[in-house]
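Quick one, T. Sequence first:
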Amino acid sequence: PDSMLNMTLTTIILLAISLSLLFANLFKVPQSTSQSTIFALMGAAAYFHALKPDKVFLEIIPTWFILPVISFLLSYSIGRFVYRPLRDKGIIQFSEISTHPLLRFIVIASSCYVAFAIGSNNVANASGPITSMMLIELGIPQSGENFLLCMILGTLIVGPCFGIGSSLWGGRVMETTGK
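Structure tokens:
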């Protein structure tokens, strides 16, 4: 429950997340920040006997396994039943597509959108516990103008930290993720 998120617990959760991601990057192992965040919160919930195992083991974790399998099957099917026939019949010259200006723009625009979405998700993963802690410590109700200000403040605290981290670790993270 969010009522348990005090300064100490939030610090422990964020420390666990940041250390796991740091070691993953040092050892060049790709790791999901969302999964790190959820497991850190689960660890705290388990310690305080507030974990809801049916929610975790029947909804969250199966989704982490099912969606990648669905993505694999979709991309395999498209490659097998769309790309390969088009390539084999010579309907589309894929070597010439990469030089088309409109398609190059679409690839760059979609890459920028994906980078923005991933960054937004990661900032939300870190600013969520900080915002909850601020609301509890300051006794602010979870609605109204003060709630919105706390959300903005939490994002303004975390966002620049991600910018600094990406400047220091960005190349290594891209290399690890790319592999």
